[in-house]
Amino acid sequence: MNYYVNRGINVSKFPVEKDMTDSELAIEKALELGAHEVVLIGALGTRIDHSFANIMLLKKMLDIGLRGSIVDENNEIYMFNSSFCLSKKEGRKLSLIPITEKVTEVSTSGLKYPLVNATMTLGTSWGISNEFEEETAKITIGSGILLACLSSD
């Protein structure tokens, strides 16, 4: 921490025992400072509980209108409740995972395995590992929430 303090970076300290994770506290601080986008790095690791909680923080950011993502060397993770586009990244596949009970009217273009007005249900895995056929994939959603993962092995 002294590394950052010595460089004039404002560092907030919190007790170890608290009601929010460090990631959630950082999002709250970013929002307080007027951020419109938050990119979480170091959010995925060996603790599945923390990794999953960090992924679910994308829902919190979506709900409050803050653009959020999680990025590491193998993944870019986003959450959407309306139509979106994602650019092709070499060596990455696109997975679409329903986060709500149903995601309706899902259609995709620019992907090897297109969906046309599909309903995706929570617990299904058929949105995993799609491949880009164009430079941009367009995904439309009628209702519900999708987790979008650009991932490589």
Task: Describe the overall structure.
The protein is α+β, with helices and mostly antiparallel strands and 153 residues long. It is 20% helix and 32% strand. The chain contains three helices and nine strands. The protein has a five-stranded mixed β-sheet, covered by helices on one side. A four-stranded antiparallel β-sheet has the order 4-8-6-7, with no helix packed on it. It is elongated, with a radius of gyration of 17 Å.
Summarize the structure in short.
20% of the residues lie in helices and 32% in strands.
Provide the CATH top-level class of the largest domain.
Alpha Beta
| Gyration radius, rounded | 17 Å
Tell me roughly what share of residues is in helical segments. 10-25%
What class would the helix/strand composition place it in? alpha+beta
Number of domains: 2
CATH architecture of the largest domain: 3-Layer(aba) Sandwich
**Count of helix runs:** 3
> Low-confidence segments, ≥5 residues, pLDDT <50?
none
CATH fold category name of the largest domain? Rossmann fold
Mean pLDDT: 95
Head-to-tail CA distance between termini = 33 Å
The CATH superfamily title of the largest domain = Thiamin pyrophosphokinase, catalytic domain
% residues in beta strands: 25-35%
Order of helices and strands: HHEHEEEEEEEE
Please outline the major beta sheet.
Answer: 5 strands, mixed
Number of strand elements: 9
Q: For the largest beta sheet, what order do the strands appear in spatially? A: 1-2-3-9-5
The dominant shape is elongated
